[in-house]
Design goal:
Shape: globular
Helix content: 25-40%
Mean pLDDT: 93
Strand order of the largest sheet: 2-3-4-1-5
Low-confidence stretches: none
Distance between the termini: 12 Å
Length: about 100
Amino acid sequence: MKWGIVDDRNKEHLTNLLKWLVYEVKSACGDGDAIWYSKFYDINDIFPLVEELNKEVKWNSDLVKMPCGREYIYWGANQEDIIITNDTRLWINRPSWQQCSIQY
């Protein structure tokens, strides 16, 4: 079951999580990677928050829809990347070298 981003408290909470992910990835000084497996919020609801925050961060962002049906948000630049997904297979098969993996 996915929750909607129904009020400003949800939006603020998720924006803070996104800001923390950006900070964590940037703290690796050019080689940071993170994945957020969102069990509760649909990536289609999260993407507008990424786009809003990206006005400050200025990374590449895209809502990727693969031919196999998998979907994820790619957000990053150079060798700093954040993947946000609802896809259990992408979560299970994530690279072991990612410095941050969140399931929420």
